[in-house]
Amino acid sequence: MKRFTHEVLTAWAAMPMFEDAARVAEALVAAVPFGSFEVRWLHRGESIQIEVKEIGQEQASPIDAPAWGVTYGGTDRTRWARLDLPGGVGSEEATVEPGVGPGWLGFLADASDLLAGTLNPDMVPAIIAQIVVPRLASWCAVYTAEHRGGPLHLAYLWHADESRTDALRDALADLVLPDGDDPADLSVNGWQAHAFPLTARGRRLGVMCLGRPDRFPDETMQLAEDLTRRAALAVDNARLYAQQAAANLALQRSLLPPEEPSVPGLDSAVIYEPAGETNEVGGDFYDLFPVAEGIWRFAIGDVCGTGPEAAAVTGLARHTLRLLAREGYGVAAVVGRLNQAILEEGDRARFLTLLHGEIVVAHGGLDLRLVSAGHPEALRLRPSGVVETVATPQSLLGVFPEVRFEAEEVRLGPGDVLLGVTDGVTERRSGSRLLDDDGGLAKLLAECVDLSARAVAERIRRAVEDFAPEPSADDLAILVLRAP
């Protein structure tokens, strides 16, 4: 009941009344003796009214009227009856007639807060309609275009009386919307209706249509025009955000393998999760690709920072690793040339940590050659449960031009597991503690004996998620190689 009351009062910009409204609503519902009931909130201009209708409890009407009841106010009791107006339109719930005053300034401020509370372009039309009804009109229809300059379509429709929504939708089916930049009158089955163009930054984004059974006062029109400008900016901001998020998602996907490869004679798994908002490109990356028959290369890296600059270095690293590996360069030589390529980027360069290796599928296991350039330690898990570090840490990339890298040989026997992660795992923070304090990652890996590569990766991911209650602020990448 509280949630329903909260949603209604939010839509009506009347949240200061929430505690009193919730208390009254709960008292009325508690008074229902048994059976089903229906709850309705009504806006009565200067007041709001809640009705609790007991369903299925028949009572003969003492008067000849379609609606009647008893109202109590203090020690007074009032009997009332309501008659429908002629003409077939039926009665409407009263709408507020705006006037000059601080209440309406508060309404516009609350409306602005609600519109700014989402960047989902599909949610903005719904918020617009629920702000308008019933404060300014009996119904609201919001039309938008999927593409700039494209045809308008009905994005959201809201009526104060939900039972009339379908009939209103049918009435609007053949509506011809005006294409001007000023508010215009509409003809909708006897309704007094107006169209308000949604225009922001010189672009027409849609139309907001309002309807009510009586004439729109001048004050209502002025308030609707003010609200329309705010709504149009909210629509435009949400679309720009969605477009940027889609573009960055496409960029992020282009920096990762299109699909997780299947390596004959190797059980492998990767997990990648970018942190932060959807409009940021993460700095972590991974790769696993063939270079010759029975020979594969892998990489897991972390570029300092996020955004386009980090994406540029990520793209440079991934393509350099693949190109030079297929040209026959060894692991150490590839890392050295990548270091030079990053330094040549000048001011655009970003530091990069990298674990790069070559996998040779051999009889009875896997032979690896590894270079760990400033990257979190790679760990090997034995079938006995023993965990040990492999690959001595060397300089990170993009710092020293004269550094020389040396590859180290590592053997993975049957059942051995190699784990590589980015610092989104090792530096996951909970208060003053990090996940890898006191060898925390090695302890987690020791619990993964006899698990598949996918199961090991998922175990580590869940441990990172459960380590702290708040979402991670860093990207995460996990690479697991297991010798069958």
UniProtKB/TrEMBL annotation:
GO MF terms here are: phosphatase activity
Domain of life where this protein originates: Bacteria
The question of whether Disulfide bond is a record keyword is answered with no
Q: Which Pfam families match?
A: GAF (PF01590), SpoIIE (PF07228)
Q: List keywords of the entry alphabetically.
A: Hydrolase
InterPro entries xref list:
Bact_Sigma-Reg, GAF, GAF-like_dom_sf, PPM-type-like_dom_sf, PPM-type_phosphatase-like_dom
Ranges where the PPM-type phosphatase domain occurs: 266-483
Q: Which PANTHER family match?
A: STAGE II SPORULATION PROTEIN E, STAGE II SPORULATION PROTEIN E-RELATED
Return the protein name. Answer: PPM-type phosphatase domain-containing protein
- Organism in which the protein naturally occurs: Acrocarpospora phusangensis
